[in-house]
Amino acid sequence: xxxxxxxxxxxxxxxxxxxxxxxxxxxxxxxxxxxxxxxxxxxxxxxxxxxxxxxxxxxxxxxxxxxxxxxxxxxxxxxxxxxxxxxxxxxxxxxxxxxxxxxxxxxxxxxxxxxxxxxxxxxxxxxxxxxxxxxxxxxxxxxxxxxxxxxxxxxxxxxxxxxxxxxxxxxxxxxxxxxxxxxxxxxxxxxxxxxxxxxxxxx
Length: 203
Ligand code: SF4
Ligand code: SF4
Prior knowledge:
Fumarate Reductase Iron-sulfur Protein, Chain B, domain 2; globular; mainly alpha; binds iron/sulfur cluster
């Protein structure tokens, strides 16, 4: 089903009314976001279609349409301390459904970068850690090496030191190795140097 054939959206279930402390409002926030991320947030008319299609909105503290509204209102503090930006799976469903083509996944990425640059706090620490390990793996091999990614993640998140979790993960890893769904050693791509250069440029 695409955005054209999808049924008309219902208004999303309202979450608790977001109270915004007037003393924390950043009046230049909307302009800054649009200029630096390139996302035309001001085009949103709050139809809610994005949130109705989001597969992980149940785990978010704010729906995607509310994230956009917070940008309109300059409620930067709400966003840089929110779970939603880390829970977003970048699946692009909201962008496909939005009648104004507002790139919410890009907005979420921009907000994550803002947090990583030192504003607010990471509300989903393990998700942020997973992102870091993923990028580290891509930088090292030009592609992700799943075995190394999981090792790094389990060690750094502490899951490797919890006996029950460690045994369950070891069993799963072994099963995946047997079924050849996991490679025991990393495989570097030909363009590894170019990928490294891209990381350097992005930095
Ligand atoms: S971002 Fe798009 S889909 Fe979501 S509420 Fe705004 S206009 Fe509607
Ligand atoms: S990109 Fe993020 S916000 Fe948009 S639908 Fe997917 S998970 Fe939800």
